[in-house]
Give the backbone structure.
Amino acid sequence: MLPFKKKKPAFISSIKQRILKDELTKLRVKHDLWYQAFEKQERNKVWLDGKQYLMLSSNDYLGLGFDLRVKEAAKEALDIWGTSPTGSRFANGSRNYHKELEEQIADFLGKESCHVHSAGYLSCVASVSCFVGKGDVALVDRNVHSSLWEGLKLSMATIEKFRHNNPASLEEELSFVGADRKKMLVAEGVYSMEGHVAPLDQFVEIGQRHDCFIVVDDAHGFGVLGDQGRGTADYFGVTDSVDVISGSFSKSLASTGGFVAGDKEVIDYLRTYSKQTIFSAAINPTQAAIASRALEIHLEEPEHLERLWSNTRRYHKFLEGIGLDYWESVTPATPIVAGSKERAYFFSERLKEKGVYANIIIPPGVPPGKELVRTGMSASFSDDDLDRLEAAITYAAKALK
Ligand SMILES: Cc1ncc(COP(=O)(O)O)c(C=O)c1O
């Protein structure tokens, strides 16, 4: 292919000039830290410039991403439904496979109804944006995911933040909100960066006392916590009291896409008002079939969830043993806190030397001082994989001191 020749533009707008001058983008591109494209993958191994790495940053919690039965389901769905419904669910894009997946997810979660989207991000934006508006108040845990902030900003509701995972702080914030205001309480079930579990039982008690509509993004608790991985609300026995559970298929179910689940009337309302639901094309047949088959396998074969948790216990014990700060994670989402972007980068580069790949996360992804290497446990790791991971982490930790 001929190299692309840029023509010198006659006119450069001031916005384009700002883009061209942006230091952060220049730095990011120069150091090539993110957006790395691997040339090959086999289960939890990826290849970069010919070298094999164990992937330690994935969210393939149940390790079903390369399961032959899941792949087969995707191929079958492609044969039956073609590549894409090429339209929104609202208009021409609804198919029976959507309805079947929605029933399956709702049933799994113990909710009446469900709507699926082509990205977890869309689902999580939708799960907050359409239920509140100007004049309403959203009480939000400081550490929630970008998708929820995005949805809340779109809603125009007043946002009141409370301290991360802190029921007393929630209670305090609520005491400043007038009783006449309509209120929404927003939290994650399992925090994606920290691996913390939200005290949903306490949040539900406080939220109900203050007349809150309760939304939980359970992208990282779905398939992981609770009876058969039914999620964080199930773990605390509060499924009926949480109004909306949103989440993603790109973690435990090894697909892409997401869901919003709740009472029938709540999901009907979402289908009437959510812009993300109305104006975006429906999830395609392969994504849906992967999520559906992966969930079936997960329910038929408890060994994946068991392996995930035994790997997680071993991993946390090991991190504890060598004195690394893993932010008191109690779930497979496990950060290694380095405390500065330079230290996080240094640590991840040492891991790479030993054939382990893990991303670094810096502000605004985490608060300043919490710069970290984001790792995630998976049922796909064998004992040999874990030995290799531990040797690499020990090496990086020694080099960092
Ligand atoms: C807590 C949380 N919510 C929502 C999302 C969005 O999901 P997806 O990446 O599948 O669009 C993510 C994924 O990063 C997440 O961690």
